[in-house]
């Protein structure tokens, strides 16, 4: 797939291949050295939607933060289209669980902010901002302020603000975890729509098995800390997917298989926490 090369959404440079090789991340805590990620390797093709799935504390967010360039690798590497990732860049957009919007700017100003910083002409940046607000279902809300919006609406503004900058890769760190179930499903549908429309590579961190099976072309199951690749599973159900897939036999079987993997890792995670607290035995 090829598109016009531009730094602005709707005409982006098409690529977005990620190569993570033997990634290790360590940090100091209470005078000791903690290994968060251990020999983690993963290749992601341009336009692919990959979910990172694992128990709490397994290093999912740490891996995403290294991909984003927010924290350094202790060893190993992350490359985007062959270039070593060493710092944050506009070729990667990040959507967090918290709605990181500027409260003193209205919706339109929040979405166009990145383009303004890059010196894009006001008329063009506002046109692009309006296009992406329409895409996320917020046309007509341009003059509203974040405090006037629901959580789901704020998250949609955040997604539009990322997409308008034309990133090759969108990194999403449990972005819908704080939303109610109905709003969460609407946001999942929106994310699939965005992925299909622009062909953006998406790395999506989640601890929700059903969310991973709905969204991911592949699901990377991660072990309890330190995070390693336990298995990478190709979703047997081709896109576009909807919640109706839950009744398909291949969905049921794949869900069972992944659940068994997760259950083992969650139990290991519980045992690790118990050991830290000096508890000798943990109930199943």
UniProtKB/TrEMBL annotation:
Residues 20-249 form the ABC transporter domain. InterPro entries: AAA+_ATPase (IPR003593), ABC_transporter-like_ATP-bd (IPR003439), ABC_transporter-like_CS (IPR017871), ABC_transporter_ATP-bind (IPR050166), P-loop_NTPase (IPR027417). Keywords: ATP-binding, Cell membrane, Membrane, Nucleotide-binding, Transport. GO terms for molecular function: ATP binding. It comes from the Bacteria. Belongs to the ABC transporter superfamily. This is ABC transporter ATP-binding protein. The lineage of its organism: Bacteria, Pseudomonadati, Pseudomonadota, Betaproteobacteria, Burkholderiales.
